[in-house]
UniProtKB/TrEMBL annotation, chains A, B:
Keywords: Lyase, Pyridoxal phosphate
UniProt EC number: 4.2.3.1
Protein name: Threonine synthase
Matching SUPFAM superfamilies: Tryptophan synthase beta subunit-like PLP-dependent enzymes
Protein family membership: Belongs to the threonine synthase family.
Species this protein is from: Thermococcus aggregans
Any one GO MF annotation of this record: L-serine ammonia-lyase activity
Manganese is among the record's keywords: no
Required cofactor names: pyridoxal 5'-phosphate
InterPro entries: Ser/Thr_Dehydratase (IPR050147), Thr_synthase-like (IPR004450), TrpB-like_PALP (IPR001926), TrpB-like_PALP_sf (IPR036052)
Length: 403, 403
C-alpha cells in the first residue's frame, strides 16, 4: 500500500462537526449540509513541491497528496483531467480582452467534467468497500458513474428521466449500469433512489450528498493554478447548476494559498445561469445567503437546470468571498455563443457556451478590466448535444447539394 | 520566430526523389506515391534528450523537434494528443494476457485520432500560406479539418456523403466549414474535390496526398514510446483503413531507434480490418506488395471501410518489416468487443473495438506469448457513434420502467 494522501478529517460545512473519513459518510444529518474533506496542509508543505509535479502523469491524480484516496491501488482512473487551456485569440480581440482563455473539459472520459467527481467518488467507494452506488441524474453524471463503476467492478444504479439524452442512456447501458428510466422529472428519480437506499442498501452518490465528488471537482482549480503557472486568472466564469465545481475550485485555491503556492490575490468567481433557471443569480442580487426553489425551470442547458442546489449557501459564499458575481443568460445567447466558440475550434456544450454569453454581459456592465486574465470553463463536449444543436437553425447550416 | 523543427526534406516513398518542404507539396506525380518528411536526426541528438520532455506540455507538440512546423507560432492547437494509456485488467485476465493496454484517442478534440493528422496538416498549411483546404470524407476527418481550419482562420471545404453521421455534419456546420453533401459515395466526393482543385484552387488534404498528416499520426508512436517509458509494446493492434496511423507509428519507432531512445526490439504491428472490407489482410496472406480494390465494401466500422488505401504498399511494408500480421473480424465480433471494452470503462468507436476482436483471433492462433506487452489502439470515442450502437440490441439494454 502506498499512501500519499494527507486527508485528515471531514467537517460539516455548517456546524463544523468532525466526521471520520475511514467509514462511509453522507451529510451532516443535524444541519442537512454537506461534509467537506480537510487536509493536513502543514505536512503537505514538507511532502510536496511544485517542482515534484513536473514528472507526474498528466491527469488529475498528479495532485494525490491533496486528494482523499489513501491507498493508491484504489484509484479508479480512465485518464481524466489535465484538460487543455486554450487562448481565444479572435474572441478576445472582438471583446477587447487581451487574455481570454477557455479550459476544455470536453476532452475527458464520457465527455463531461462529471468524470472528475465520479472518478473520485467511485475510487473512495472502492476504498471504503461500498458495493452498490446509485444516483438520480439528468444524464451526464449517470454516464460517468456507470463508466467508473464498470472499471472498478462496483454495481451502479442509475435512475433518470426517460427523455434523458440518447447518448447518456446508451453510455449507461453499454457500461453495464442498472438503468431505471422514469416517466417523470429528476426529482422523481431522486425519490426512487431514496427508496433504493432503504430497500436495497444503495449508497447515494448525488452531488454534495457524499463528501468526495467535490474533491474531484477541486482538481479543476488545482489544474488551473498549475496551467497558469501559479498565477491564477483574475476572473473565472463557471456555469452553475449544483455548484460542486465552483465550490471545488474555490476550495482548491484556498488550499493552494495556505500552501503558499499562489499569492493572496484570488480569482473573482462568476456563476453563469440561464434566464429560465437562475436561483443563484436571484439570491446574489438580493444579497441572500440561500436560494429559493425556482419554479418551472426551463433551459436548453440541462446541466444548469437546477431549481435549488443542495449546497446553494456554499456557492453564494464563494461568490461573496471572491468578490465575484452571478449573471443569467438566454437560450438564444447560449446558442449564439456556442457558434462563436466553435469558430475558435471548440465545440462546447450549452453550459460551456453560457459562460461566453455571461462574459459579454459582465464586459458590458464594465466589471472587467481589459488587461485582466479571464477564464471560461467549458464543462463538456458539444458532441454529446446533437439533440440540442441539430434542432437549432441558428447554428448556420451551409450545406449545398452538388450531385 | 522560434524554430525547433529539424525537418530536412521530403522524399518520395517509392523513388526516393527529394522535394522541398518550404513550398506546398502533394505527391510524387511520377510514382503516384506519398512524400515522407525526413529529419536531421543527428542534430536532434544534440538538441533534445528524453529528460527535456518532462516539463513540456502534455500534448503532441512536446515532440516539436521531430515535427515539421518551423515557426512555432504557426502551431494550430486545440490541446490534442498525449491521450491516456489504460491497463485492461479484467480483459487481460480473461484472455490470459498479463500486460494488456489500450491507448484511448477518444479523449482528443473532435473525438477521434483524425485530430492529430489535421492539426499537423492545418498548421503546416498555415505556415505555407495556403488559404483553402479541401477533402472528401466519411465524416470524422472532415470534422477535424473544420475544427483546426476554424482555429487557424483558413477556409475548409468538406465534401461528404449526405448519409454521413449526424454528429460529424453538425461539427462541420458549427465550425463554419463549407460543407458539400453528396448523394453518393466518398469516391464521388473525391471527384468533386478534384474539380474544386482545378476550378477554385482548393488544396487537397486527403490522407497521404499531402506529406504532413502522417507526421501528426506519428505522434501516436512517439507517445506510446514515452508512455511505456521507452520500452515499446511487443505487439500493437491497429484498425487499418487508410493506414496513415500504422505508417506514422512505424516511422516514429524508426526515428526513435535511430536516436537511440528505444532499442532494436520493435513492436509487431498488426492491422485489423473488417471481414466486409479486408484488402490489406488479403494482400498480406498472399504475400503481395500491394492490395487490390475490395468490391462491395461493407462494415459498421466506417473508418476501416477503405476498399484500396492510397498508401497500401507502405502499410504492407510495415507489416512485413515488423514481423506483424493482419486479421479480419466480423461486425458481430466488433459489437461484442465494444461491450467488453465498455465493461472496463472505455466506450470505444467500432474501429477501436475491432482491435480487441482481432486480438482474440491472434491469441487463438497462438501468435502471442502471454507475457508480452500488448497494446490496442482505440481511434475514437463511442460517443460519436450513437447511430451505430443504438440500433444494436446486442449492447445489452437493462432498462426498467418504475413509474
Amino acid at each position: 500500500m502506498r499512501n500519499s494522501s494527507h486527508l485528515e478529517k471531514l467537517v460539516c460545512s455548517k456546524c463544523g462537526k468532525e466526521f471520520s473519513p475511514d467509514e462511509p459518510q453522507t451529510i451532516c444529518e443535524k444541519c442537512n449540509a454537506p461534509l467537506l474533506p480537510i487536509y493536513d496542509l502543514e505536512s503537505v508543505k514538507n511532502a510536496l513541491s511544485k517542482e515534484d509535479l513536473k514528472g507526474r502523469r498528466a491527469d488529475m491524480w498528479r495532485y494525490r497528496e491533496l486528494l482523499p484516496i489513501k491507498d493508491e491501488r484504489n484509484i479508479v482512473s480512465l485518464g481524466e483531467g489535465f484538460t487543455p487551456v486554450l487562448k481565444l485569440e479572435k474572441l478576445g480581440e472582438k471583446l477587447g480582452i487581451k487574455n481570454l482563455y477557455i479550459k476544455d473539459d470536453g476532452l475527458i472520459p464520457t465527455g463531461t467534467f462529471k468524470a472528475r467527481g465520479l472518478a473520485m467518488a467511485v475510487s473512495k467507494a472502492k476504498e471504503l468497500g461500498l458495493k452498490k452506488l446509485a444516483m438520480p441524474t439528468a444524464g451526464n453524471a449517470g454516464a460517468a458513474l456507470a463508466a467508473y463503476a464498470a472499471k472498478a467492478g462496483i454495481e451502479a444504479y442509475v435512475v433518470m428521466p426517460e427523455d434523458a439524452p440518447l447518448t447518456c442512456k446508451l453510455e449507461c447501458y453499454i457500461f453495464g449500469a442498472r438503468v431505471y428510466l422514469v416517466r417523470g422529472l429528476i426529482s422523481d428519480a431522486g425519490r426512487i433512489v431514496s427508496e433504493g437506499k432503504r430497500k436495497f442498501g444503495w449508497f447515494d452518490v448525488s452531488t454534495m450528498k457524499e463528501p468526495y465528488r467535490v474533491e474531484g471537482k477541486k482538481t479543476m482549480g488545482l489544474e488551473i493554478a498549475e496551467q497558469f503557472n501559479w498565477e491564477v486568472p483574475d476572473v473565472i466564469l463557471y456555469p452553475t447548476g449544483g455548484g460542486t465545481g465552483i465550490i471545488g475550485m474555490w476550495k482548491a485555491f484556498n488550499e493552494l494559498k495556505e500552501l503558499g503556492w499562489i499569492d493572496e490575490k484570488m480569482p473573482r468567481m462568476i456563476s453563469v445561469q440561464s434566464e429560465g433557471c437562475a436561483p443563484i443569480v436571484k439570491a446574489f442580487k438580493e444579497k441572500k445567503k440561500e436560494s429559493e426553489f425556482w419554479e418551472d425551470a426551463k433551459t436548453i442547458a440541462a446541466g444548469i437546470r437546477v431549481p435549488k442546489a443542495f449546497a446553494d449557501f456554499l456557492i453564494l459564499r464563494v461568490l461573496y468571498e471572491s468578490g465575484g458575481g452571478a449573471v443569467a443568460v438566454s437560450d438564444k445567447e447560449i446558442l449564439e455563443a456556442s457558434k462563436e466558440l466553435a469558430r475558435e475550434g471548440v465545440f462546447v456544450c450549452p453550459e460551456g457556451a453560457a459562460t461566453l454569453a455571461g462574459l459579454k454581459q459582465v464586459v458590458e456592465e464594465g466589471d472587467i478590466d481589459k488587461d485582466e486574465k479571464i477564464l471560461l470553463y467549458n464543462t463538456g463536449s458539444g458532441i454529446k448535444y446533437t439533440e440540442v444543436y441539430s434542432k437549432k437553425p441558428q447554428i448556420g447550416v451551409t450545406a449545398y447539394y452538388l450531385h
